[in-house]
Design goal:
Keywords: Glycoprotein, Membrane, Signal, Transmembrane, Transmembrane helix. It is built from 6 helices and 7 strands. α2 packs antiparallel against α6. The chain has 2 domains: 70 residues, no CATH class; 64 residues, no CATH class. Helix content is 29%, strand content 17%. The strands form 3 sheets. Strands 2-3-5 form a 3-stranded antiparallel sheet, with no helix packed on it. It has 178 residues and is of the alpha/beta class. The protein is elongated, with a radius of gyration of 26 Å.
Length: 178
């Protein structure tokens, strides 16, 4: 009976080998996960990663995959800089409400920090309401943002977008049917 239990224990025992690695050298997202969901690293006020700087970088705690041990900390956790959106308190929902209900008076542009455009909209009654409609669309698409270059406060897993822009240095891959 004892040899059978020993044999069953041998077959069902999981053998793990910890690999010691410099976790800053990990390349693929399958090797680690950032930010570590077990830690509350999202600031409830800005809905972005805590410690997000104006340069759009934040240092967060990450967790390495199973059986990877980081040499920096001696366990599976490590810190890494990841991109984030720096916010300065301008809420997208507030901006949209101002644009819909008071956009003809330019209040939305005053709120975002564009007093010149706000005054122009006020004097022309929102550009005869056509400018107000265009502003609603541009703000909803997040093309028009705060004047200080910050991002809108949007829920972290909300409807935030990332606009991909091209310029003269952008290479466009030609397609076969062109």
């Amino acid at each position: 009976m004892f040899p059978v239990l020993l044999l069953l224990l041998f077959f069902f025992a999981k053998v793990t080998h910890q690999i010691n690695v410099d976790c800053n050298e990990l390349q693929m997202m399958g090797q680690f996960m950032c930010p570590d969901p077990a830690r509350g690293q999202i600031d409830p006020k800005t809905q972005q990663l805590a410690g997000c700087t104006k340069e759009g970088r934040a240092r967060v705690w990450c967790i390495a995959a199973n059986e990877i041990n980081c040499t920096e900390t001696g366990n599976a956790t490590f810190t890494r800089e990841v991109p984030c959106k720096w916010t300065n308190g301008y809420h997208l929902d507030t901006t949209l409400l101002l644009s819909v209900f008071l956009g003809m008076f330019g209040v939305d542009r005053f709120y975002l920090g564009y007093p010149g455009i706000g005054l122009l909209k006020f004097c022309t009654l929102g550009g005869m309401f056509l400018g107000q409609l265009i502003d609603i669309v541009l703000i909803a698409l997040q093309v028009v943002g705060p004047a200080d270059g910050s991002a809108y406060v949007i829920p972290y897993y909300g409807a935030g977008i990332h606009i991909v822009r091209s310029d003269n240095t952008t290479y466009r891959l030609p397609r076969d049917d062109w």
